[in-house]
Task: structure prediction
Amino acid sequence: MNKQKTLVYGLIAGSATIGYFLLFYFIQPRLFFSLGVQWASLLIFIGCMVLAVRNARRLAGEGQYPWQLGLRAAFAVYVLAAVMYHLFYYLLYNYGGPELATIQEDVVMENLSKYQNVVGEQNAEHLRRDIQQAGIALTPGAALMALARSIIGGFVLSLIIGYLMRKE
Result:
């Protein structure tokens, strides 16, 4: 695995994701929290992870390329990109866009109403009450917890990519 190329793919994924979200933020800040925009951003991560594994696989030559090496390359890209994105999000949310907290509260309340059947009526009511009482804040601890959850999901995604791109 070429660590330098993996680093480059991670930086590209992180920068592209930040640019992607800034585009929506400048178009309309409310779009920043759209579920479609959020989930579509994962395509940037997946694309760069696949490119990194493909590059590492090519450098490995004609022999075997076990899934563990693909996992390692894909996960390194994911972690770097996720750290960049979460740092950007924390800074924008707390220092760059003070209106984001209010917008996020509105979007979450609307989504609770839309998806009340999925969440459960009682859970939705508890969440509504908590948001109305305390609001939504992005503390350093909450940001680190979001990053940790993201990295767990990124590991699973990396495992899938590594397995699918193995050469045995």
